[in-house]
Structures
1.
Amino acid sequence: MFVIEIDSSYYPCNSHNITAGISFSMKKKLQAFYKQFSGNDRVLVIINADPDAIASAMAVKRLLWRKVSGVSLSSINVIRRPDNIAMIRLLGIDMLYAEEVDAKKFNRFVMVDSQPNHNKIFAKFAPDVIIDHHPETDALAPFKDIRPDYGATASIMTEYLRAAKIKPSVKLATALFHAIKTDTNNFERQTRAEDIIAFQYVFRHANIYLARKIEKADLRLDFLKYFRIAFEGMRMRRGKVFAYLGTVANPDICVILADFFMRICSVKWSIVSGIYDNRLIVIFRNDGLRKDAGKTAKSGFGELGSAGGHKSMARAEIPLENIKEFIALGNDRTQLQWIIGRIEKKAEKTGTAFKKEILGLKS
Ligand SMILES: [Mn+2]
């Protein structure tokens, strides 16, 4: 049992001081990581696929190249998000579906960007190695490197690659670049200096155009019909766009359209709704100026289902059985009118300040 626990005060050059190069402790960690493997090992990397997990899994594969007999990557989730599909396709990644993997074909298991109790499918595998940046869950593994203060596991993996003196290929660097950008939300979320250092390093080796294509590929061809529905049925007044899409094949399209309408310079609020899985989904977006999307969602729909969020982003999900009168309306136009009424009627009750904010009224 080898668990990495390095007292940073003990080492003169610790991981908080890596600008000058790769720290002593990072080299120790790399050695301990490599000690888990031998030449005949068949390694399975297990992830819950998102850009950070995919890039981190690729980095593990690169670290173990020519050091073990084979490395396969597997995901516990079916990859459906268009940007993740684009990442897999453009970077030429082979990804197995974990539930279909015969675990007996492998003798070493590596988990990155997750810990075993994050998902019950993980229970099928006893990881030898866990590298992650989520809060510590006290999972047991012969080798663990969990750094909850990092913005991305990809930043940690970049340190491993550098400690191993491996120059990442363009595809690997692009994956790590996209992963750090995604998990830190372009450094808008809390990150460490180490994330920025890792980002600057992979930036030098990445293909920015390829990364941009992956980042922008958030649409599926079959989503386009919802744009037409939204454009034809949308109501725009006083800086607010309301659109109702009827039944949707994927609730993500409501989010994509709500974000899309915010790109119109005169739009202050965007409220896009649709029916999915016997629920009415309502997505709220605003420009962040003295508005509260979470409160608006709650006041309009809180008594009917779950509703809430942040000041500029919110979501409501209402079981259809709670809104029979809405279903009885039967057509998209009157249903949209009902949604607008819910938001505006509640707004009127809440007083003038709220009226000003939400409705853009002068008094
Ligand atoms: Mn992550």
2.
Amino acid sequence: MMDWTDRHCRYLHRLITRHTRLYTEMVTTGALLHGDVPRHLDFNREEHPVALQLGGSEPADLAACARLAQQWGYDEVNLNCGCPSERVQRGAFGACLMAEAALVGDCVVAMRQACTLPVTVKHRIGIDKEESYDFVRDFVGTVNRRGGCTVFSVHARNAWLKGLSPKENREIPPLRYEMVYRLKADFPQFTIVLNGGVTSNEQIAQHLQHVDGVMVGRQAYHEPWMMADWDRRFYGSSAEPPDRDAVEATMVQYLEQVAQQGRGWGHAARHLVGLRHGQAGARRWRQLWSDPVLRGDSPRQASARARAALGTAPRNAGPQSVAEAAESAPTTVQNEVQPAAPATTTPSA
Ligand SMILES: Cc1cc2nc3c(=O)[nH]c(=O)nc-3n(C[C@H](O)[C@H](O)[C@H](O)COP(=O)(O)O)c2cc1C
């Protein structure tokens, strides 16, 4: 998800779930072919398995970017055919590609020839007022026949290309899960992953009775601890479940490293805001993690402050840090955190 699932966010999510596949923000072919490749593609080795999502519609450009994805060590390369933003429409890619299934097939073929990674497609169930099941069935069928793609992540809503903002396009067109279930029934040999509006692990379990995977975007970002159960529940892992304090402590160490490297750690810290969702003190926690750099804190100081707000002692910090933190915690109430606008850690169970 753009601006959300950067490498720091994915590092945090990987501390919570070992097996879930994580997705990058969409990176356009133009940004990779004419821009700063390490800035867009570098990631932490801990993030595996991780998929790079590309935005583009020129087979040769997408092939060059798929090659880069392989060189940089990604596990999958995914083509975005679901983004409805005007900027993306002007570039003639994203959701408007659903009207050009043959071209999408050509793009997929070019990408598959350029690398040995799995090449997958993320799309909607339709565009504008085209609501027939046949449309999305033919899209999937053509992209498979022409491109050889067998893995489809389907956001179970239409994209309305005129008149709605990207945010509205994630809320207003109705969710129609039965369309995604039908795809799986008609193409049982393909991997069909359902996406859109999933907010609980019970819902994931229900969808998994009809499809092969579930992709969770906003809920996993805002409430990342929902993923703590996924390895055992959906991947059959017998490993100990993660411990929230230990995840936090590891993330704080990570933020210290980011700070030592002279990189903006505040940008990385904002992903922690949802970690304590549902616990006492969560609101204050969110406020404290939303702007730690403005207060001149180091990651450890910010952590001590935030833990004091929760009423727990900080790990890795001496007892006086708790008192200091409690004493110096600002008393003004800030606005609710609104994470910088729209990306997809899109975990798929
Ligand atoms: C902030 C934000 C950024 C997004 N960026 C992308 C993106 O880069 N690529 C993509 O395929 N989907 C993107 N999406 C859409 C999500 O991946 C997902 O399809 C959508 O939010 C519906 O799933 P959800 O209800 O689980 O969030 C974005 C969503 C949000 C909220």
